[in-house]
């Protein structure tokens, strides 16, 4: 018994359908050894996040894959969860406290963490609820959080293991420091932005001489930390001053003039000031020459006590004052305005400062090797493969990873300091010092980089370090779907972490997608005001329309443009599918049409063969991760073949209760609709579920129904050719009538002439639908042109001609003009094919099949041309 569908499609049904899916537990997966697993772990969105178009694309792609595999019979698990987003969350808590007139120190660490957890409980689930609006079929019973108990245990376990193996160490190195957030950030979190700046040309006096050394710098304030002046050892201009000393103004520091190949003789004056504490290149020079490292900045970006008279001034305020006073001293030469790339924090966009600080690091050289090997051996692949180059480039040029952050929200580093100076690393607080026997310890104040915990996500979410049934069954995961912008942030770190802890890759495939840009190709941003809220689109047009819009035309790795007009097109598609389904149900009623192969007509076999091939093509494209091509195949089939052609073809049989093939038409309509719905379901889950559960009652949900598979039983190649021939004829007739401005209501006799018995048979058997689709008052099929007036309107088809009584449709002048155009077109086609077949280069290299196809085209076009020429001759 079928249930009734509403008269019109309303996307508000989506909430009801999703609640039913949740209530029935359709998304849940258990470790079942009898089924082959297919696993995806969600790239965990930040708890501070709000659903944007990038999320919508990412989650839609994952949901398509998981729904498809679930229907194929896999034990499909999609693990959801969120990331604690250390810096972003801490900034939000701090800002909220500032509104109350409080800072972190006022409430203390425990008080701050209490507030942070309260904030997480109130707002942290927002984005996951928004993902549900999109239709995401995650196993919500397995939702994880990077700071939940299990994942925190995994983080501490990995830290301690890496420390015991010597991979984690403490050291004073130059790191990226964000003065705004007052924390270390990794190289991957540094975003280079083009900014207006300057080259300040300054000179230092050489002690004991009347000479000066001129150089240029983009950061004059760092001169307060200069510990050398460098020139190239081969630069004849300065060989006589190497070994002498310059005097740094304001601090009266005497610094050596050194020779180092780092200096580019051809750039500027060939002189470089060296500030080892504030520049990574200078740091390396300082290491080679054993130079002191003088830090001149406080954590908040103000000048510290090493800055002399400029102490406590903001770095930019100090810059301006230093230049002013250098000018007064005659040591400032000029300023060049430049536009240059400046390192900024990707979170707050403050300009970062390289600073020397004692931090925790992970040694990367050895850890990187297995991650590289996994790619080169083919254990890990990228789609598209070109993104593997980014992965390998990052790993081959990797630096030690600074993992400590000066934050309170996050995984606190499990290092404990005894009063005697001993450092104990342990998952739990030590009770006795192994060195002195002391019992008083202070835990390290810093937290771990957020990416340290998310690097463990593929296996920690499945229960590691415990040997859980889920870890054994679902790991390694099958595919990771992510944007190209976090390959180095996250993908690299997940792979080397998995290789170290699990001994195998965390996923077999990385499917890369691009950015969702606005209609002008610009990146969506708050500053441009061009962001499009996916939740608003869902509210207005439904999640199905948004999903179809995001995937249509989408290709792996490529950016896409988002057009609101396309959302309307997607909504129209859902409407068309809805109306077609209601039409089918209206004619089936309470009946249950039965399959009788012998009653199938050519039109039935054609559409069954088409949907059969569609299943093969869609599956092949999904296997290749060509989601955009796959959905376009389904879209074109439903809109064109099923709705615009097949339904129109069968209407005469449906309206004739006595037609012996009526039940075959009903069975075919229903069968093809159900298969098309299944193939569309991963892309548009809501509307397909509503129609599926209305049009049949054997299965309670389309989600768990069987994915259509190609069957040789329904391969009707001959019928496909027959119907395509009739479609060609109908299109030709419609084109002629359109050119002649003949209204559809004006019927005319159609005469099909062919000396080919097979062609005549096709049109005889297809008269029942050919006549109404060709606006024919009647259809005659004959072997010659007997009885056809010389002025009949005509068009050529393969192995035949179509004629219509001229007097009913056209005037002679226009018909001559139309035939002349058709003749010109056919002459060009004949010439093109003849030219190709006379080209020895083509004939010698092309496969025999291709050559035969071209010969067949020549025969076809020549035959059509001859017919047209005969018609022109008849018109005189």
Strand content: 15-25%
The gross shape turns out to be: elongated
| Distance from first to last alpha carbon | 64 Å
Q: What's the mean pLDDT score?
A: 92
Q: Note poorly predicted spans.
A: none
Judged by helices, strands and strand pairing, the structural class is alpha/beta
What kind of sheet is the major sheet?
Answer: 4 strands, antiparallel
Number of strands: 29
Helix content: 40-55%
Radius of gyration: 37 Å
Counted by DSSP, the helix tally is 28
The neighbouring-strand order within the major sheet is 6-5-14-16
List the main descriptive attributes of the protein structure presented here:
876 residues, alpha/beta, elongated, 29 strands
Task: List the topology elements.
Elements: H1 13-24, E1 37-41, H2 53-71, E2 75-79, E3 81-82, H3 86-99, H4 104-123, H5 126-134, E4 144-145, H6 149-164, E5 168-178, E6 183-185, E7 190-205, E8 212-217, E9 228-231, E10 245-248, E11 253-259, E12 271-274, H7 280-289, H8 315-329, E13 332-345, E14 353-362, H9 365-376, E15 381-383, H10 388-396, E16 401-402, E17 404-405, E18 415-418, E19 423-425, E20 441-443, E21 447-448, H11 450-454, H12 457-460, H13 469-474, E22 477-483, H14 487-501, E23 507-513, E24 516-517, H15 534-541, H16 543-551, E25 560-561, H17 564-588, H18 602-623, H19 627-655, H20 662-680, H21 685-695, H22 717-739, E26 748-753, H23 757-765, H24 767-773, E27 776-782, E28 793-797, E29 800-804, H25 806-809, H26 812-837, H27 840-845, H28 848-875
Parallel strand pairs: 1-2, 3-4, 9-11, 15-23, 22-23, 24-25, 26-27
Antiparallel strand pairs: 5-6, 5-14, 7-8, 7-13, 9-12, 10-11, 14-16, 17-21, 18-19, 18-20, 26-29, 28-29
Helix pairs in contact: 1-21, 3-4, 9-10, 9-14, 10-14, 15-16, 16-17, 17-19, 17-20, 17-21, 18-19, 18-20, 18-22, 19-20, 19-24, 20-21, 26-28
